[in-house]
Design goal:
Distance between the termini: 27 Å
Strand order of the largest sheet: 1-2-3-6-4-5
CATH architecture: 2-Layer Sandwich
CATH topology: 60s Ribosomal Protein L30, Chain: A
Order of helices and strands: EEEHEHEE
Shape: globular
CATH class: Alpha Beta
Structural class: alpha+beta
Radius of gyration: 15 Å
Largest sheet: 6 strands, mixed
Strand content: 15-25%
CATH superfamily: RutC-like
Number of domains: 1
Number of strands: 6
């Protein structure tokens, strides 16, 4: 199916050391035609799994104070890293699904950070509150990008 699996411009499966390792059996992204589908992207740091702004709970499940702005900035940085590994950029994003673990607490701060990066791009967005995410984070993005240059 892929004539050159080591070429990020033709390989349909995207993996990168510049983003945190997936927590399951899935790649960072998958290309289908001109579309790039990113797996859920959280704020964990590549290599260390540290969570900027702190985790939302400790190892025993007790709630902790955290900074959703720092987590959102880190998510966007990780999205950029995955996009770059596929030969894309933030301006190629066409749709974002956002998962927040505490909409009432975090939406205003998250939305402010999001707007600073995405207002000019005008990607569509859906924001959903969820009970928890697989790691102790407050925010995760599911992203679709279009790699056709004419759609930028």
């Amino acid at each position: 199916m892929n004539p050159n699996p080591s070429d990020p411009m033709t390989d349909p499966i995207v993996r990168t050391d510049a983003a945190p390792k997936p927590v399951g059996a899935y790649p960072h992204a998958r290309r289908v035609g001109d579309l790039l589908f990113l797996s859920g992207v959280g704020p964990r740091q590549a290599g260390s799994d540290a969570i900027p702004g702190g985790p939302v709970r400790d190892a025993d499940g007790n709630p902790l104070d955290y900074d959703v702005r720092a987590q959102t900035e880190a998510v966007i940085a990780n999205v950029r890293a995955v996009l770059a590994a596929a030969g894309a950029c933030l301006e190629d994003v066409v749709d974002v699904t956002v998962f927040l673990t505490d909409m009432a607490r975090d939406f205003p701060a998250f939305n402010e950070v999001y707007a600073a990066h995405f207002a000019a791009i005008q990607a569509t967005r859906t924001t959903i509150e969820v009970g928890a995410l697989p790691t102790p984070i407050a925010v995760e993005f599911k992203v679709v990008a279009c790699l056709a240059g004419s759609d930028r």
